[in-house]
Amino acid sequence: MQLRALRYFSMVADSTSLREAAEKLFVTPTAVTRQIELLEHFYGASLIERGPRGVKLTREGELLAQAVKATLSELDAVKERISTSQSIVSGTVKISSAESLVTPFIAPVIDEFRALHPKVQFEIETGSALYVAENLISGKADVALTFYMPVNAELQVTNYCELKHKVLMSIDHPLSNKSYVTLKEVSEHPIAIPPSNYAVRQLMETASKREGFTFDIRFTTSSLDVQKRLTMMGLALIIQPQLNVNDVNDHEKLIALPLIDPMMGQVKVELCLPRQRSISLATRIFHEMIARRIESQNY
Predict the structure, then answer these.
(1) Structural domain contains residue 119
(2) CA Rg, the chain, in Å?
(3) Taking the alpha carbons of 199, 205, 209, 211 in that order, is the dihedral positive or negative?
(4) Mapping DSSP to helix (H, G, I), strand (E, B) and coil, where does residue 225 land?
(5) Is the pTM here over 0.85, yes or no?
(6) How many domains, the chain?
(7) What is the DSSP letter of 71?
(8) What's the pLDDT tens digit per position in 242-273?
(9) Is residue 39 in some structural domain?
(10) Residues 65, 89 share a domain
């Protein structure tokens, strides 16, 4: 059995169709099908089911997928240890994160990291806390950073900090001349907000019920870039955590005012690693660097 067949199967397991897997692998769908057939012959069982909505794993396929992910991860780790023995830090660091934490935390650390280890590549996935946790548990991510990581025995929180929520608005917004903003004042203006599976929305909805008012939700989107664009156009307010140290807004047309609220005053940012899975040297170094940046916000 060839390693290629296992890698192709692993990609199929993470895809909705053979064509999608083939595109990610830069090969033809026929080449993918051939490798899957070799595996099915080797194990004497069907591994995938084809249907009108694409492919899905059989029960036997799911068992193999779990083993393959662990095996490939270990092989990649060995490859990087061999490279390390030759004084080269290489490989790929897979990161899963809340989108709003990429700019203040992940991007600066990657910039610093690549100056020291230019051979390392990075894959970054963004989403809700639940999505981030699932990526780390499944092996799709090596390290994770999000707000209020769901408790799970397979995850370990290594570092955390608490950031203050601020209200972002255009420079000519009616509230822009204030020194701080309350949630009640926010509720009197249109807002852009992420879907209900995001922590900031859950906090806002809980606070509004507690205080007896409703928000004027004009825009719902998980894209932070879209939220900021709407805010710069003066169409909405958004609530985002901002750094406690070196808080520099990345848009000249936005200002950030402190949000005064007992429930939403601060939000917890947590850095996580898999509890029982070995990580590569590149991941270990990256984790140590981002851990230092997170801890700097606690002083």
Answers:
(1) yes
(2) 22
(3) positive
(4) helix
(5) no
(6) 3
(7) H
(8) 887 655 554 567 888 999 887 777 888 999 99
(9) yes
(10) no
Domain that holds residue 277: 82-159+268-298
Residue 237 is classified by DSSP as B
Please spell the DSSP secondary structure of 96-150, one letter per residue.
EE-GGGIIIIIHHHHHHHHHH-TT-EEEEEE--HHHHHHHHHHTS-SEEEEESPP
The structure tokens listed for 8 are 């192709």
Whether 256 maps to a domain, the answer reads yes
Q: What's the pLDDT tens digit per position in 10-54? A: 999 999 888 898 888 888 989 899 999 988 888 899 999 988 878
Query: Rounded to an integer, what distance in angstroms lies between the CA atom of residue 105 and that of residue 108?
Result: 6
Same domain, 199 and 244: yes
- On whether both 89 and 170 belong to a single domain, the answer is no
Alpha-helical runs (H) found in the chain: 3-13, 18-25, 29-43, 59-85, 107-116, 129-138, 183-187, 199-211, 224-232, 281-295
Task: Using alpha carbons, list the distances in angstroms from residue 83 to 88, 123, 139, 190, 285.
Answer: 5, 20, 22, 53, 14
Give CA–CA dist 299/292, Å, rounded.
Answer: 12
User: Which one, of 163, 164, 157, lies nearest residue 271 by Cα?
Assistant: 157
Residue 154 placed within a domain: yes
155 with 90, same domain: the answer is yes
C-alpha of 8 from chain center: 24
Return the DSSP state at 250: S
Structure token digits, residue 91:
């490989």
Domain boundary among 16, 40, 72: 72
Residues 179 and 261 occupy one common structural domain: yes
**Residue 212 token pair:** 């007896």
